[in-house]
Every structure is written in structure tokens, then in C-alpha cells.
Amino acid sequence: MRASARTPNGAALLSLLTRRAWAVAAVAACTMPAFAQDWPMAVAPAGCKFNWVGTGGFQETTISGGVGHFPTLLTGTEQNWPVVEPLVPFCGEHCQTEDDRWALFELFPLEVGNTIFVGPSDDPIKIEVESFVDLRAAGGTKAYRVATTGANANRTISYWAPDIGWLVRMDEPNFSKVVVTTDCPEGAAPVVPEKPAPAEQPPTDQADETVSPGA
Q1: 51 SS3 class
Q2: In whole angstroms, how far apart are CA 23 and each of 18, 34, 44, 62?
Q3: Residues 7-24: tens digit of each pLDDT
């Protein structure tokens, strides 16, 4: 018997529940300080919408889900919201290891000339902040132009707008897209998640004391 269009079969139901569980977990990650404390740059707050147009009539509206564990942003499409997915600026799936994560700390805060290498040593990915430019994207903004170059010499150029706290343009070998408008919650501005205050240190005279075993 064919499954009803209104009643998902077991596999479809499991997929739906998995997606919903992931959405809940990812949204929760946006609000848990432990996942956000190590971000070294301002990020568009959750709920900001970015309207993209691109090659071949491409159109899409994406929404910021805030931040996950650095270097992961959270993002979703308007069509599937509140389901969110991870987004790693500039290196995507290539930034998978803890070494790569620490390498990215050398890239941020973004500054022209900053250069790092990520990925396996036999196939490294070069990421370089090439310039700080004026763009017509998002109604006019300044952005860091960041080049990602693979061992095969393919280059992807990404543009990060610090005043917006998000990527606003991407140029790949056969595809380009750009943000034409943004729509953030009223009063929202890019924010850097607060870092915890340093642990309170004991007075110097106590800190310097040596305690003998069994004292």
C-alpha cells in the first residue's frame, strides 16, 4: 500500500525528526555562552536576513543563526527556517581539525596581509586577506577580500563586511553571488559574544607560598 502524502513513512519521519532535533540543538548552541566565548570577531546577530542574487538567475534568502563553536557560524535558508547548518567562512569543510581551528585564530581579527595554511600538509589550503575594499553589495559597504587557494590553484574569493558581521559576496571559478539587501531585527548590530571574566587570583603573598606535603 502506498504511503499517504499526508502521513510520512518511517524513514521520512525519522529524517524529519532528525532535522528538527538538529535545528533545536543548533539554535540552542547560539544562546549557550560556552559555544560562543572564543569568537574573535563581530558576527551578525541571529535573525538577520541576507538576500542574495547570483550567476544564472540565482536567488536566495539566508538567515543568520548566530555563532557556534569557532570557526563555525550557523545559517539557514528562509524556506527551511529554523533549520540551520554550519558555515565556516573562507575554508568550509577544509577546516575540520583542531590544528586548523587554531590556525584560523591567526587570521582573525581580519587584517590585510594575514595569511594561514589549513588542511593536510600534502594538500594545503592557503587563506590570505588580500585587501579592504569598497563594495556595492548590501547597499554599499566596506569588506575584507579574502582569497582561498587550493593546491590545484583554484581560487575562491570571499568578502567579509565587518560593519555587517557576515559574508556579503563570494566569487568561485564558475559562480558568483552577492548580497543585495539585508534585514536585521530592529536595533540589532554585529556583536562579539562576551568572554568570561578571568578567574580571580589569590593575593600575591598567598600565591607565592609553598606548602609542604602533609602540612
Answers
A1: strand
A2: 9, 18, 19, 15
A3: 344 444 334 333 433 333
Cα dist from 54 to 68, 100, 168, 177, 195, whole Å? 27, 30, 12, 4, 37
Q: Which three cell numbers stand for residue 137?
A: 553589495
Of 36, 39, 64, which is closest to residue 50 (Cα–Cα)?
64
Task: Please answer whether residues 143 and 160 qualify as being in contact, where contact means their C-beta atoms are separated by less than 8 angstroms.
Answer: yes
pTM above 0.90, yes or no: no
CA distances from 112 to 118, 143, 197 (A): 18, 11, 30
What's the number of CA atoms in the CB half-sphere (13 Å) around residue 213? Answer: 0
Q: In what order do the strands lie in the sheet with 115-118?
A: 85-87, 73-77, 58-67, 49-54, 175-183, 166-172, 155-161, 141-149, 125-135, 115-118
37, burial (CB in 10 Å: exposed 0-12, middle 13-18, buried 19+): middle
